[in-house]
What we know:
This protein has helices at residues 39-47, 84-97, 120-131, 143-146, 150-162, 180-212, 266-278, 284-294, 306-312, 315-321, 355-371, 417-421, 434-450, 455-474, 480-499, 505-529, 537-553, 556-566, 587-595; strands at 8-16, 64-73, 100-110, 135-140, 166-169, 233-242, 248-256, 260-261, 264-265, 325-327, 343-345, 393-395, 402-407, 410-415, 432-433, 567-573, 578-585. The chain is an alpha/beta fold. It has 4 domains: 1-30 and 378-474 and 534-606, no CATH class; 39-52 and 257-371, Alpha-Beta Complex (Hect, E3 ligase catalytic domain fold), CATH 3.90.1750; 64-175, 3-Layer(aba) Sandwich (Rossmann fold), CATH 3.40.50.1390; 475-529. It has a 4-stranded mixed β-sheet with strand order 1-17-16-12. A hairpin with a 4-residue loop joins strand 16 (567-573) and strand 17 (578-585). Helix 1 runs parallel beside helix 11, helix 14 crosses helix 17 (537-553) and helix 15 packs antiparallel against helix 16. The longest helix is centred in the first third of the chain and has 33 residues, at 180-212. It starts with 7 loop residues before the first strand and ends in an 11-residue tail after the last helix. The protein binds zinc ion (ZN).
Amino acid sequence: MPRPFKYQYVTARPSPSGRRRRRRRCYNAPREDKPEMNGLLRDLLDASGGHANGNAEQAAPAPAKALAWARVSTDMQDERGLSIPEQMREIRLYAAKHDISIVDEFREAVSAFHNQKRRLEFQRMLARARSDRGVSIILVHDFSRFCRDSAEARFLIQDLRKAGVRVVSLNDPEFDSETVAGVFMEAITHAKNEAYSREVAFHTRKGCRANVQTRDLETGWCYKNGGQPLWGYRGERLLRGEERGGRPIFKSIWVLDDAIVAGRAMHEWARYWLVTLAGGGATLAELRDFCNQKGIPGRRNPFWGLSTVNAILQPSVLLQYCGFGVWNVHRKNGQERPPEEWVVVENAHPALITEDQARAVAAARQRNSQTKKFDTGFGKSRNSTYLLSGGLFKCSRCGANMTGFRTESGYYYVCGSQPYRKGMGCGPGVYVPQAQVEAEVISGLKGLVDVCVDPKRFTRKVNEEVRRIWEASAAVDPHADQKIQAIDKKIGNIRRAVEEGLEDANWANVRLRELHAERKALAAAVTAVGQPPRLDAETVLRYGRQTEKLFSQGEPAERKRLLRTWVQAITFVPEELEVKINYRVPESVMNGLVAGVGFEPTTFGL
Ligand SMILES: [Zn+2]
């Protein structure tokens, strides 16, 4: 039952949106031969109703400050690279030789296959480089340590250069990107690195493919490529010889997980859960609750949620519970590949259930989905009539998305922990009436757009705000112009003194050099960051009209998209019954203005 409540709405002032989002590049995976489809797999797929988806500037007198960056790839084919301590040692040597002082060191061990966003340490290093004005260099052992994708690397390096930070590689040729030769050198260096990276990726995949089909002579099980073992299994590392360099070669296999949890071995829980519960027709919610009640730890999160349960019941996973090794199911982006592309190996690890039991689980799943279409919300949020669902509105207590929820008394938003894991990991659910919170968000937005009735005032206000934020974020010295004028005056005075016969010419020269250096630094800082973005009244007006129109006539998906351009975040604080709404000035508006290009009214430049 929804709890009664009194909400407080907090509206934050507009702020310019974040950095421009870039398109991600995709590699085309090399084509592979299609193996014949496994009979059991076909049955499971059929039962599930088909394919399941679940430069440094001139060296200043003081040593230049640098960040050191080292990275290793954890992919097996790439182990021959230098270790992080070795990279760091070489970077420190280089820094000492070139009179560079390293102010901070960052390191990361990741797979080349990982998403850029997950490279947290790298992002932290970039943020430091951009925000710390003292830092003018990032030292890397070679550019491939910086970024494997050449387009991405060039973009980042250029972007950093604009921010006054040069990326220096110890083992790539140094190039002056202001010259024609330098531009070519840069392009060639990055292309070389990318070619290497693709080659590594290709061989790694080949290696992985071979690995899953290689049977360990001693145990009889096939090797695994890493990743978390299925629930009910644990990975076991086996020492299998050594490389030429003397480094040990480890291989891993899956064995039944015999850890005792709540009085039983984990693999017994998994078997019972699959055969008796899932095979007996238990719903996703019942399956989830069972684990949470028994105190069986979740896979990634402390508690089980519906998405985990759903993932376990997919054909590719049931197949693995029958002892089949299954590889190449998902693409890098998480999408499932067509089953013909999967690599399936028989008897790859101990079976937990029989093939008939797996068929029964798939059949029960199908019966459940026919009797009651279960809306887990997967992929539905885009067209949902809940305007704020899908990540805009979040629970501050646990960080989960607030999701649409209907009860007999009406439509609500509630922390996703409530419907998906019975509040586990959050707390008692508080139901926020949909109509009320949406009205509040829209009225706030209208308020923001309505100020456009007085476009001059609004524009001035926004521009003041934008300038303030821009100065803070770009760490611009707001008095740089005055300081440059003051220096010019001093330079003029010394010159005049020399002309008028000043005797200490030495002093004058030293002083002049100092002043020129100071002036140069100030001027460079000003040009490096450029001018703050500005809005013009006409565009804001036009934008405002379009916004209103779209809001009154748009499809839910359009309205949602529009909302996301104006609203940074909405958070719900259950303890205080408070909804915080942060608005922003859409980036498309700002960019359109700055570049002097008219924006697209219908698409809003999205
Ligand atoms: Zn929550």
